[in-house]
Amino acid sequence: MPMPEHILVETRGAVGLVRLNRPQALNALCDALMLELGAALRAFDADEAIGAIVLTGSEKAFAAGADIKEMKDRGFADVVADDFIGNRWETVLEIRKPVIAAVAGFALGGGCELAMMCDLIIAADTAKFGQPEITLGVIPGAGGTQRLTRAVGKSKAMEMILTGRMMDAAEAERAGLVARVVPAAELIDEAVKLGERIASFSRPVVAMAKEAVNAAFESSLAEGVRLERRLFQSCFALADRAEGMAAFAEKRKPVFVHR
Ligand SMILES: CCCCCCCCCCCCC[C@H](O)CC(=O)SCCNC(=O)CCNC(=O)[C@H](O)C(C)(C)COP(=O)(O)OP(=O)(O)OC[C@H]1O[C@@H](n2cnc3c(N)ncnc32)[C@H](O)[C@@H]1OP(=O)(O)O
After folding, report:
1. What is the atom index within ligand 1 of the atom nearest the CA of 26?
2. What is the pTM of this model?
3. Cβ(33)–Cβ(70) below 8 Å
4. Residue of the nearest CA to atom 57 in ligand 1?
């Protein structure tokens, strides 16, 4: 396997850390980067030692969008023939372990869409989110119109997508796009600490919790509650659930076996 050119990959305990690394283009998402990113995410998903994944960029940019220079000469026939976006740009959605986006600087266009494909976003106080595609004569093409609207509501999403304006970390937290805002210098440590906590719990239970929350985007309330109930009841088949509840009753820390 050749060394990746556009990403840096490392492990921090039980957390897989992927850093987008195209600083000269503010981590613009070119096809080659997306292929490397997909491979790294799948590798961590298959690694039993890893319980959570952190995806981040540089201090200046998480990702400034899809690579405009790579797209500018493509025509309708090209993007349809290649099923651009649909063909391999949604690998994040196939990852079963929690993927935490740690965003500093610009997360624009596909960069914001990539962050929203992750399970949660931790933002540095320098983060700026936006879907400026309209300034280029296109609309968001990797879920931005759907996920941003579900995350922040129609009016704010519509304003951002129709004007291309950015929103800073404080507004993103108020709007519910990000879970927390931290000082930029603490972003990676905070995201890894969060990942370590998640990785300390029962892996199948973490996977079921992630599936249940994500289902809220995809189903009616009744269907989502039904799925949640089935997954909750499934936990009672796991030794980890027995251990977790016994540990509480015996006033000791649980030792989960499925980690
Ligand atoms: C593995 C599976 C994962 C699946 C995830 C899939 C994610 C989605 C990916 C596909 C998405 C396609 C659909 C998407 O909705 C479409 C888009 O994203 S369109 C692009 C939207 N982004 C933008 O419009 C932002 C463009 N950039 C800027 O406005 C500015 O660069 C900035 C961010 C405001 C910063 O400005 P400055 O500080 O002045 O810096 P520069 O402008 O000088 O930039 C420095 C350098 O970087 C190059 N660059 C910046 N952004 C891009 C880009 N998007 N594409 C290509 N290159 C970019 C810029 O040209 C400079 O380079 P130089 O000229 O010096 O060579």
Report:
1. 47
2. 0.96
3. no
4. 25
